[in-house]
């Protein structure tokens, strides 16, 4: 016989009161993971309490119910094994609403927009290669500036060179959109150090490039593409011993950064023979013009609609990943067949996560090791 959830056993207690609730909260904290169920808790006075999230398939806000006459609130939802969900709580007291991280949950994820609490389902764990390893020899990360005629400004970036860098060898090149964010929020330098140390990926040169006006520059912007293909790439080829084949050059990005990678490839086909895009904002419309993304998506939708009508082979290998719980899952699934039909070799993976930096971090080993596997390094010529 299946055991009742802990919160339901609490509801049935005849001696339900503040002392019992305090003991319950101290024992279980929040959220309570029981098989494929997650129960969120809040302890405090409020008129209403909600779980706020961006999980497609769950109501948002997810209302919590008060347990008896106590100040404990709870909400239970399905959470398949391996799931990872970011969320916050929201309370209403009269006309005042307040939104905050779960005070009963120590797990927190960070992003440029702030932080969120993390609910991890059974089977999910932070990959070992995503945390610092004292046995790993670190690579170097240096600041670099260059003047861009295309962008009409000075462009900053971070450039990574692997441990034991040898100028006699030739290295694959990875150019990362939203580069500093990948370093800060997806621990990408740590990931690179560990994966290279473990021989999961080839040693590589990585340029972490930040945008100036992200939504404009990443939405099929000709100056941005020209900067990457005609200015940044030649500068890096002159400064570092890089693999000369297009297969050894990879553009990478998440969300709008994924759009910037694809649109650059389409503008300069064959220059970047490899690409890695995560949760790419490849929105499109089949009927009408209402894509629901707001004005920032207008040039993206125009580009994707045009590309779907007349697709071209702009790269040789493309790794794609997307979270099942994010709205972009449908357009990403749809674009896989479009890319494959023109002869692009595509590896596509889905996971039970959302549109966030930890999700993108957790896919780095899979994507990078497929594009540049360690045991076969330096074979891209």
Automatic annotation (TrEMBL):
Pfam families: Esterase. SUPFAM superfamilies: alpha/beta-Hydrolases, E set domains. One of its GO terms (biological process) is carbohydrate metabolic process. This is Esterase. InterPro entries: AB_hydrolase_fold (IPR029058), Esterase-like (IPR000801), Ig-like_fold (IPR013783), Ig_E-set (IPR014756), Mycobacterial_A85_antigen (IPR050583). It comes from Nostocoides australiense Ben110.
């Amino acid at each position: 016989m299946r055991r009742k959830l802990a919160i339901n056993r609490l509801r049935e207690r005849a001696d339900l009161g503040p002392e019992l609730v305090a003991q319950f909260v101290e024992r279980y904290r929040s959220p309570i993971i029981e098989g494929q169920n997650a129960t969120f808790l809040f302890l405090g006075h409020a008129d209403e309490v909600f779980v706020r999230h961006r999980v497609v398939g769950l109501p948002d806000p997810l209302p919590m119910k008060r347990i008896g006459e106590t100040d404990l609130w709870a909400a239970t939802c399905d959470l398949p094994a391996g799931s990872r969900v970011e969320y916050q709580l929201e309370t209403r007291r009269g006309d005042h609403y307040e939104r905050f991280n779960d005070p009963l949950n120590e797990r927190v994820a960070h992003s440029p927009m702030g932080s969120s609490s993390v609910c991890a389902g059974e089977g999910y764990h932070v990959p070992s290669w995503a945390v610092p390893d004292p046995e790993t020899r670190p690579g170097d990360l240096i600041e670099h500036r260059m003047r861009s005629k295309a962008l009409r400004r000075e462009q900053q970036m971070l450039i990574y060179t692997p441990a034991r860098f040898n100028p006699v060898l030739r290295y694959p090149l990875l150019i990362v959109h939203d580069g500093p964010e990948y370093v800060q929020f997806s621990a990408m330098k740590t990931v690179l150090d560990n994966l290279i140390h473990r021989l999961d990926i080839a040693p590589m040169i990585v340029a972490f490039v930040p945008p100036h006006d992200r939504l404009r520059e990443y939405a099929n912007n000709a100056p941005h593409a020209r900067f990457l293909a005609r200015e940044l790439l030649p500068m890096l080829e002159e400064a570092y011993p890089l693999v000369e084949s297009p297969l050894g050059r990879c553009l990478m990005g998440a969300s709008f950064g994924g759009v910037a990678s694809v649109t650059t490839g389409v503008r300069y086909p064959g220059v970047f023979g490899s690409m890695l895009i995560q949760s790419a904002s490849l929105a499109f419309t089949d009927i009408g013009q209402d894509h629901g993304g707001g004005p920032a998506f207008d040039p993206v939708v125009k580009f994707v609609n045009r590309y779907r009508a007349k697709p071209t082979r702009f790269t040789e290998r493309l790794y794609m990943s997307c979270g099942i719980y994010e709205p972009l899952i449908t357009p990403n699934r749809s674009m896989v067949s479009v890319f494959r039909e023109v002869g692009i070799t595509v590896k596509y993976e889905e996971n039970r996560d959302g549109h966030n930096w930890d999700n993108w971090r957790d896919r780095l080993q899979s994507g990078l090791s497929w594009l540049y596997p360690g045991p076969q390094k330096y074979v891209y010529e």
